């Protein structure tokens, strides 16, 4: 028990001694300034010595280069979906996607009993028409001489004209399945009907196989005529006023920028979609078989004497691969603001970012950049 009391007394004595010992002065804690800032403040003397000048974004007439993208396409009239109006069983077909075809070439042959029936109906209607025509002419002659009644003549005339309609309708149906009614006779009735290529070009799709029954709504093949290939470009609304028909462009495939093609603006779509862009159709000046529908391409359009928003070159600074300008918050405070720039021409740089109503540093902006970054490092 005595040992415990002595130990407590010793600890209390040491504690009191420590409390009575003069405390050492603490070193001041350094406050680290926030160096991540885009605002710089200059004195009037610094502004004068650095020749810092301010101004607004101005409209300049300058040569600029508009870069857009698009896709190789063909007009709707050059794309043909082939079907058989009356359906049938596919007997022969030797087509593959990409195969060249010529207009009038046999693409496939179909068979069906209805083809036979249609030819039979037409030949019988044609035969009956000859009889009714002769009877009509006979009754007409008798009626003119008052040898028969008007009722008999009108009946003969009605039957003759009705049969003409029937024969004409059957004739059109035969032509739908590419059977020539003028060459049809009882000795030439066939169970087959051929499908001929309506255009020259290439096969893009084959949707059937031999032996399959196809209905009138089935698309058997899709053909394309590349003779009128065009480039469909997507251009934003703000750039449309700078484009005009017959304007020349340079384009190249996305995966091969060195393969240059020239084209001419043919048509500018007069409406803007929900993405605030419009389609511009361009015709290639020279056809190249390397160009195929669906190919993505980039295009460059030189805008001569285009009216663009621009600032002097000295207003734009580059920092970490990004472009900036200094916006004047007051007469001595400036904020570094990121901008999207365009082409540079005749001492001015195009500004695509909306800076309407703002005052910018138009000269010696790099002085502000150095002041901003050096002050940040010193802190």
UniProtKB/TrEMBL annotation:
It holds the Pfam family CzcB_C. PANTHER family: CATION EFFLUX SYSTEM PROTEIN CUSB, SLR6042 PROTEIN. GO terms for biological process: copper ion export; plasma membrane copper ion transport. GO terms for molecular function: transmembrane transporter activity. It comes from Chitinophaga dinghuensis. Belongs to the membrane fusion protein (MFP) (TC 8.A.1) family. The keyword Translocase does not apply. InterPro entries: CzcB_C (IPR058649), MFP_Cation_Efflux (IPR051909), RND_pump_MFP (IPR006143). The keyword Ribonucleoprotein does not apply. GO terms for cellular component: cell envelope; membrane. Residues 309-368 form the CzcB-like C-terminal circularly permuted SH3-like domain. This is Cobalt-zinc-cadmium efflux system membrane fusion protein. Keywords: Transport.
């Amino acid at each position: 028990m005595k040992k415990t009391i002595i130990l407590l007394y010793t600890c209390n004595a040491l504690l009191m001694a420590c409390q009575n010992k003069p405390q050492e002065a603490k070193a001041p804690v350094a406050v680290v300034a926030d160096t991540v800032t885009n605002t710089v403040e200059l004195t009037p003397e610094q502004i004068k010595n650095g020749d810092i000048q301010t101004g607004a974004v101005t409209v300049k007439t300058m040569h600029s280069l508009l870069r857009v993208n698009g896709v190789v396409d063909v007009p709707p009239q050059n794309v043909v979906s082939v079907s058989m109006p009356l359906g049938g069983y596919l007997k022969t077909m030797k087509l593959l996607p990409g195969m060249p075809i010529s207009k009038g070439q046999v693409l496939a042959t179909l068979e069906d009993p209805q083809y036979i029936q249609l030819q039979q109906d037409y030949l019988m209607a044609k035969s009956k028409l000859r009889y009714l025509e002769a009877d009509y002419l006979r009754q007409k002659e008798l009626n003119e001489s008052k040898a028969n009644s008007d009722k008999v003549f009108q009946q003969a005339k009605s039957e003759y004209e009705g049969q003409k309609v029937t024969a004409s309708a059957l004739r059109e149906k035969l032509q739908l399945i590419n059977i020539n009614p003028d060459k049809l006779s009882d000795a030439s009735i066939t169970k087959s009907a051929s499908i001929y290529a309506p255009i020259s070009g290439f096969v893009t799709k084959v949707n059937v196989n031999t032996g399959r029954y196809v209905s009138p709504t089935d698309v058997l093949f899709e053909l394309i005529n590349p003779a009128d290939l065009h480039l469909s470009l997507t251009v934003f609304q703000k750039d449309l006023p700078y484009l005009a028909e017959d304007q020349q462009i340079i384009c190249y495939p996305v995966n091969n920028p060195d393969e240059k093609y020239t084209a001419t603006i043919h048509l500018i779509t007069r409406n803007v979609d929900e993405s605030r862009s419009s389609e511009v159709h361009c015709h290639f000046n020279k056809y190249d078989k390397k160009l195929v529908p669906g190919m993505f391409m980039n295009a460059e359009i030189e805008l001569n004497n285009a009216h663009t928003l621009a600032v002097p070159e000295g207003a734009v600074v580059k920092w970490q691969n990004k472009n900036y300008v200094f916006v004047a918050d007051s007469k001595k405070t400036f904020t570094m603001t990121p901008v999207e720039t365009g082409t540079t021409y005749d001492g001015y740089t195009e500004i695509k970012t909306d800076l309407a109503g703002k005052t910018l540093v138009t000269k010696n902006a790099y002085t502000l950049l150095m002041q901003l970054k050096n002050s940040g490092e010193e802190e």
